[in-house]
Every structure is written in structure tokens, then in C-alpha cells.
Amino acid sequence: MKLLTKFKKVFGEGEELIPSSFDVVGSREKAVAIVEFPENLKLKKLEVAKALLRKHKNVKSVLEKVSERKGRLRLRKYTLIAGNPNTEVLHKEYGYVLKLDPQKVYFSPREAYERQRIATQVKAKESVLVMFSGIAPYCIAIAKSQPLAKIYGIEINRDAHEYALENVRINRVLDRVSLFHGDVRKVLPKLKLKFDRIVMPLPKGAYRYLDIAIPALKKDGILHFYYWGKENKLFDQAKKMIEKKALKFGRKVEIISYKEVLPYAPKKWKIVLDVKII
Ligand SMILES: C[S@@+](CC[C@H](N)C(=O)[O-])C[C@H]1O[C@@H](n2cnc3c(N)ncnc32)[C@H](O)[C@@H]1O
């Protein structure tokens, strides 16, 4: 028997070609696989997608990433290679459910652990602002982990905001999460609130909002600041930006921790700085 025929017997047609890493968003009942096809598989996309649908019974659609994340909404373009064109799913992580369509909103299943890391730091009675809240994964992770916290989320993408409202309902945390649609720069001043903690999960551009985040933090408030750091000096630039902006408001900075969240590009990482603003 030829080697390829043998392979096909073991794996089924095309299964030996399935890329080793791809994202799955959704549940056991319905999920979407998001695949980046390497150059050598570009001509075999349909074969691979069909094999993927066969092998992973919960995967009902296979989307190909066809662009980087772009623009203010941080969306990317996808092409449906095989399966159901309706790509709305219920994604489950850490005991909560998130409804979303990956084609309409930003969402990364790879950041579940980071959300949990933040959520478990929140203490009772804290007031927490999640800027750039998307479909509300941080808000919900925090609300589930700390039922006595009050959480606010601000998101500019209307589709994401609509999903966030539904997610807050589905997860029964309506009483402790308040969501606002719009530009954080316009919405935040209207809230007239100060926070114990502010999460800024927008690596591309969160620094532009430090001028509104820092004054909105209470004394000794905590900032979770995301950025893209370059290897060798991963945290330098982010640290300097925070210190410079804090100084403008007469505030001091105490770094609590530096961390790589995920690799982003060659020699580039998504990073987070947990910082106390004194
Ligand atoms: C990297 S995504 C993170 C979304 C969400 N926090 C999550 O972790 O899934 C950044 C989000 O910020 C939103 N956004 C960008 N600029 C904004 C602004 N000025 N005001 C409010 N939301 C903004 C985008 O639409 C996008 O949903």
C-alpha cells in the first residue's frame, strides 16, 4: 500500500493536511474553526476544511483568515471555505457563556486565561471600568469571579455592544455590569465616576487613552495596560508612556507586574503591565 493511501485510511481523506494549530470558537453543539492556511495548502483549502468538519463534529463552519485585524474595531476579513454561513456561536470558557459572531466582533479564545488572571485580582466592593469591552468577556469574567464588584464596560462597535448586552443577560450578571455604547473618550466623562481598577485591553492604541484613564482612577487604583512589546525591550516603552502620563497628573506609578500575554508577530508580544497609580 502506498504511503499516502495508508495515511488516508488512518486519517480519512484530507485529514493529514489539517494544520496543527487553528482557533475554535463555540461549543460542543456548534463551533467555528478559524484557520490560517499555510502557502503549501492554499490549493487544498476545501479538502482540508471538509476533513476538519468530518473530524470535529461540533465544527459547523470553517473560516479562513484573509486579513490582519484592521481599523478601530479590530476586525479581520474571513472567507467561508466550507459549512454553515451562519457563524454565530455560544462560546464557553471558565463557567460562563459568550454569544458572538467572529465575523462581526473582536474575540480571541486564546485570551481566556488572561481574563481569568485579571478577574481573580478584583476584590469585593471594587468599582471596575473595562475600556474597549467588546462582547464583554472581561466584564463577565470579573462579575462571575467577584459578585460584589461593580463593573462598567464601554465599547464602540455596535454589534459587539449588542452581544455584550445579551451576554450579560445570559450569564445573569445584569445587576453588577453596566454597559455603554460609544467612544470611550466621549462616554467616560459623562459617567462622572472614579474607579478602583481600569482594564485597557486594546494593545493597538490604549496608550492614547491614558490621559482619560489615569484621572479616572482613585488614589492607589490599579491599571491593567496592554501593549505590543518588542523583544529585548518588551516593557520599556509601555512603562515610560504610563510614567510620563501619570506625572502630568501629579501621580506616581508603582509597577506591580509585567507579563507577556501571547506572541503577536515575530519578535513581538502582546504584553500587560499591572500598575498602581498612586
Ligand atoms: C482588542 S478588542 C478587545 C475587546 C474585548 N475587550 C475582548 O477582550 O474581547 C478592542 C475593542 O475596542 C473597541 N474600541 C476601539 N476603540 C474604541 C474606543 N475609542 N471606544 C470604545 N471602544 C473602542 C473595538 O471595537 C474592539 O471591540
Named CATH architecture of the largest domain: 3-Layer(aba) Sandwich
Task: Report low-confidence residues grouped into runs of 5 or more.
Answer: 1-7
| Class based on secondary structure composition and strand pairing | alpha/beta
CATH superfamily of the largest domain: Vaccinia Virus protein VP39
The tally of strands reads 13
In helices, the fraction of residues equals: 25-40%
Q: Helix count, per DSSP?
A: 8
> Which of globular, elongated, flat, extended, rod-shaped describes the shape?
globular
Q: What's the CATH class label of the largest domain? A: Alpha Beta
Bound molecules: S-adenosylmethionine
Rg, alpha carbons: 21 Å
Largest sheet: 7 strands, mixed
* Major beta sheet, strand line-up: 9-8-7-10-11-13-12
**Span of the ends, CA to CA:** 71 Å
Structure in a nutshell:
The protein folds into two domains: 21-87, Met-10+ protein-like domains (GMP Synthetase, Chain A, domain 3); 108-277, Vaccinia Virus protein VP39 (Rossmann fold, 3-Layer(aba) Sandwich), CATH 3.40.50.150.
Describe the structure.
- It is built from eight helices and 13 strands.
- The chain is α/β, with parallel strands linked by helices and 278 residues long.
- It has two domains: 21-87, GMP Synthetase, Chain A, domain 3, CATH 3.30.300.110; 108-277, Rossmann fold.
- The protein has a seven-stranded mixed β-sheet, sandwiched between helices. It has a four-stranded mixed β-sheet with strand order 1-2-3-4. A two-stranded antiparallel ribbon has the order 5-6.
- The model is unreliable at 1-7 (pLDDT under 50).
- Residues 72-74, 106-107, 111, 132-134, 137-138, 154-157, 160, 183-185, 201-202 line the site of S-adenosylmethionine.
